[in-house]
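User: What would this chain look like folded?
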Amino acid sequence: MQLFDTHTHLDAPQFDEDREEVIARAVEAGVSKMINIGFNRETIPTTMKLAETYDYIYAAVGWHPVDAIDMKDGDLDWIASLCSHKKVVAIGEIGLDYYWDTSPKEVQHEVFRKQIGLARELKMPICIHNRDAHEDVVRILREEKANEVGGVMHSFSGSWETAKMCLDLGFHLSFGGPVTFKNARVPKEVLAQTPMDRLLIETDSPYLTPHPFRGKRNESAHVKLVAEAAAAIKGIDLQELAEITYANALERFGIV
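Assistant: Here's the prediction, encoded as structure tokens.
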């Protein structure tokens, strides 16, 4: 069985003491591919180093909405230059975050729009961060013609109505730890209705740790717990869920 963790942060400081062991545990658990996310001036270089060190780790590079206020004129060119690297498979994570009040909304919108434009120019899929900003995220994706490249709604947390709009724009929906939580009714209902060919799984480690490890550090090996929960929700066996989501990720990110 092969699993694909489509969104992880293995370069996070939470892994500084045992990063190699964490990666080894993921491989041992059947995680044969991972995408590490570089999302600001500090994490883009560390993400690239991971992708260059491990054959099975790929990179997405972009500018996170929380850090939008720190983006300088040359940073978009930097991201563009990295997109020609053979291990860079997406621009992200990009989007809007109305929970953390660090970057003004208008700045987030501008940075989001610029990166969608870059993705269209380079024909790269995008990885979307959306926290408490469903309406504006969908509106900007439409206005900027993001359907031309598509991408992934990372750790999807919206309603089925929002999900349908994202699916109509050609996006995949990716689910993580919350679908294992007993009280997470909405993510489970949305996952149940998501077409199998648009379904992805992830950890967002070290965050969003699945049950029964909730409250502890997450790691990529735990994507198997997400896969088990998703398989149960879909009413299929784990092997089939793993095969479908793995193939979906290869196709979505253009990995051969």
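The chain has a mean pLDDT of 97. If you want, I can go into more detail on any region.
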